[in-house]
Design brief:
301 residues, alpha+beta, Rossmann fold, Tumour Suppressor Smad4, 2 domains, eleven-stranded antiparallel β-sheet, four-stranded parallel β-sheet, 9 helices, 17 strands, 32% strand, disordered N terminus
């Protein structure tokens, strides 16, 4: 006679694939994902996105899955995470198939498909902090200033140049166009009035395909890290730029201010282009507030 018996519900999985990520790498692995799920007897569904923000819509239309897996780059991960946070349930899984894969680098996730699937289908998960830029979510890094123009230029050329090379070329192209603007930045009730070159805020250390912009950042310390680069000459930018790959730019304290806080308020000297986890948003006004979301995100790890 069985005295204590109960049915243990297995997790079900919704794979959300960005078909253009990684030069088509993501879409090419659909068959392998299906074979893995069938072999393991996993309850699963696979959908491909067709436009920006499709991932969020797919999650809202399918709110009953336990694990939502982003198959793509940092932008796709951001969209899937945003969808999970909006419906208030679910765990994020990641199969990194983008150009930069910066959040995956922070998490030290493998790139090999089988290893990713083993992590996603295991019971383990961790909780990470979530940033808010006004009402938009970000997991890794948000930024304004020169960086947003760099992302804009990188997007234009990444079909021809990939990874770090695309970002480096994007820097040079952005420098030709960018002009610093007078900004008012409130950090821990201290007001900084600068002609701002760049402000990066986040929980992850890397962006731009492996640039260590926030070396002291943590995904679960309940604080946002920030790095503010004051107005400097374009020649000085080119001098400073190579040091960002190793995080050594922080030693240039004359130009660079860094630290941790729970909120940052920015009054920009012009219309803001916001970079959130590699996605660009053109804001209608010139103000933005960064802070931590009051809830953490569960992530397979």
């Amino acid at each position: 006679m069985v005295l204590n018996s109960r049915q243990i519900k297995k997790e079900n999985y919704f794979f959300i694939v960005n078909p253009v990520s990684g030069d088509g790498t993501a879409i090419s692995e659909l068959e392998s994902i299906e074979k893995y799920c069938i072999k393991k007897g996993i309850d699963y569904k696979i959908e491909c996105t067709k436009a920006i923000d499709d991932a969020e819509k797919l999650i809202e239309e399918n709110p009953n899955y336990d694990v939502y897996v982003a198959v793509g780059g940092d932008g796709t991960i951001n969209e899937v995470a945003s969808g999970i946070l909006k419906i208030g349930r679910g765990i994020l899984g990641i199969i990194p198939r983008g150009t930069g894969n910066d959040l995956s680098k922070v998490l030290e996730l493998p790139s090999e498909l089988g290893k990713c699937l083993d992590i996603i289908t295991a019971e383990n998960y961790k909780q990470i902090d979530v940033g808010l830029a006004d009402d938009r979510y970000f997991l890794n890094v948000a930024s304004v200033g020169l960086d947003a123009e760099v992302v804009n230029q990188t997007e234009k050329i990444k079909d021809h140049v990939n990874g770090k090379k695309a970002y480096i070329l994007g820097v040079f192209l952005a420098l030709l166009k960018y002009r610093s603007v007078k900004s008012f930045i409130d950090i821990n009730n201290t007001l900084y009035q600068n002609s701002l070159m760049l402000l990066a805020v986040g929980n992850g250390q890397y962006y731009g395909g492996g640039m260590k912009i926030l070396p002291n950042a943590s995904l679960n310390d309940n604080l946002l890290s920030y790095c503010m680069v004051k107005d400097i000459s374009k020649f000085r930018v080119l001098t400073l730029f190579p040091t960002i790959f190793s995080g050594k730019h922080l030693k240039y304290k004359r130009y660079v201010l860094e630290g941790k806080t729970d909120k940052i308020e920015v009054d920009f000297g012009g219309k803001i282009t916001l970079n959130l986890d590699g996605k660009l948003y053109r804001l209608e006004n010139n103000k933005i507030n960064f802070k931590l979301h009051d809830k953490k995100l569960k992530i397979k790890y």
